[in-house]
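Hypothesis: this fold can be encoded by more than one sequence.
Test: take the structure tokens below, design a sequence, compare later.
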């Protein structure tokens, strides 16, 4: 018998984000059985004491009262979450913002935000005694899943485009899991992963399919709320591809609102490359549907993504509807920026805040700067940019942005010439 450190969770059931259909908490499917929409996890908020709901832990399982898991003996070995929120005083001053913050989620164990999702998915898979966990990935979700599953020797298979940045591929290989490097796109890897999971009965962690990834990702909102002294920010920017991160952040603040721990939702801004802007297009379409869009009628577009920000290069956004709802229902926006702005933001973010980010994670910075320049904030607004991946994930893009150092002879003459 395993010892359970938290025998009860407060899971109440599931609700389709598209059609509203509900399933009880015993449901083990992944998508809405009525319309194949993505499922939102429901909790029994009345059973949670908002004054005493957090555990004395320094990882995401601090918030286990609002997670769909029970057995804390099955958590990963790595510490996931508890990443710093920096007050970007100098960068803020140059933009006329007194309360600009950067959440550095590149400091998670595998170097990206995805650890939050993988950690919760791993516990659910282990609680269900799944034979294996599998995930399709642009790189980060897979290197995260490989690290977390590999760390506890849980069987794991990763489906990844062979063209993913070498650092991400090497990272996946290092943990000794099965790697299927597909000559094709992320979307093709995604479909293959789904097919194999259906054939073999594996636990499919795919983004925008598995309802539990959003639950892990929402812990970022809980941390921001704690780090801001029990407040929500006014505006929050995050890089968006499939739309699962922004919808997870939305979920976290919805939980806090339901527990009356915040009074209003932050405005959420999906930050996209104009070369991979399916969610932005869908937001425009939803706005055309008026103030109360019929979500069942919203068709999500498929685009031909070719942005250099590989982690947000997505043809079809698999959690797109939730992302659109996150933007529209919070009064936020979808902001597209050019790949050049994303590249320029790498050194800009590093030099003005001290945070080193991969391209997908600087899109939020470029988007925030656009809106700051357009006068969309008041000087005292609390503005948060969530940096979702470390700059070390994609050194080729960093080199495109900053070039290489000029090598010099090992002589004082040469050194003085450089310093002059
Ligand atoms: C670093 C980084 N930023 C942003 C995203 C976008 O998240 P989503 O696809 O859920 O919108 C990802 C997803 O892979 C990522 O790895
Ligand atoms: Zn449905």
């Amino acid at each position: 018998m395993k010892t359970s450190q938290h025998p009860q969770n407060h899971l109440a059931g599931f609700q389709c984000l598209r059609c509203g259909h509900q399933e009880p908490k015993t449901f083990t499917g992944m998508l809405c059985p009525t319309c194949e929409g993505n499922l939102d996890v429901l909790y029994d908020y009345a059973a949670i004491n908002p004054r005493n709901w957090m555990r004395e832990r320094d990882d995401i399982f601090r918030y286990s009262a609002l997670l769909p898991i029970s057995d804390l003996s099955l958590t990963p070995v790595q510490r996931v979450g508890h990443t710093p929120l920096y007050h970007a005083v100098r960068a803020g001053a140059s933009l006329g913002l007194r309360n600009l913050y950067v959440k550095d989620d590149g400091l998670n164990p595998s170097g990206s935000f995805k650890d939050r999702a993988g950690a919760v998915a791993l516990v659910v898979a282990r609680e269900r005694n799944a034979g294996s966990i599998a995930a399709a990935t642009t790189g980060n979700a897979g290197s995260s899943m490989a690290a977390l599953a590999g760390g506890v020797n849980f069987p794991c298979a990763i489906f990844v485009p062979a063209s993913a940045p070498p650092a991400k591929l090497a990272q996946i290989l290092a943990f000794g899991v099965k790697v299927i490097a597909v000559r094709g796109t992320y979307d093709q890897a995604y479909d293959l992963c789904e097919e194999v999971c259906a054939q073999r009965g594996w636990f499919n962690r795919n983004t925008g399919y598995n309802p539990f990834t959003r639950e892990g990702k929402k812990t970022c909102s809980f941390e921001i709320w704690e780090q801001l002294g029990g407040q929500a920010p006014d505006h929050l920017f995050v890089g968006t591809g499939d739309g699962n991160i922004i919808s997870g952040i939305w979920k976290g603040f919805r939980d806090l609102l339901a527990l009356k721990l915040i009074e209003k939702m932050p405005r959420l801004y999906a930050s996209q490359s104009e070369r991979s802007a399916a969610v932005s297009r869908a937001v425009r379409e939803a706005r055309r549907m008026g103030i109360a869009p019929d979500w069942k009628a919203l068709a999500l577009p498929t685009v031909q993504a070719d942005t250099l920000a590989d982690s947000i290069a997505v043809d079809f956004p698999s959690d797109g509807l939730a992302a659109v709802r996150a933007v529209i229902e919070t009064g936020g926006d979808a902001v597209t920026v050019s790949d050049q702005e994303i590249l320029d933001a790498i050194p800009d973010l590093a030099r003005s805040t001290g945070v080193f980010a991969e391209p997908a994670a600087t899109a939020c910075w470029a988007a925030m700067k656009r809106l700051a320049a357009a006068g969309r904030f008041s000087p005292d607004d609390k503005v948060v940019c969530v940096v979702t991946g470390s700059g070390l994930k994609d050194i080729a893009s960093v080199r495109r942005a900053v070039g290489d150092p000029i090598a010099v002879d090992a002589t004082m003459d040469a050194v003085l010439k450089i310093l002059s």
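Residues 16, 18-19, 21, 32, 34-35, 37 surround zinc ion (ligand 2) (CB under 6 Å). The two ends are 70 Å apart (CA to CA).
Hypothesis status: open.
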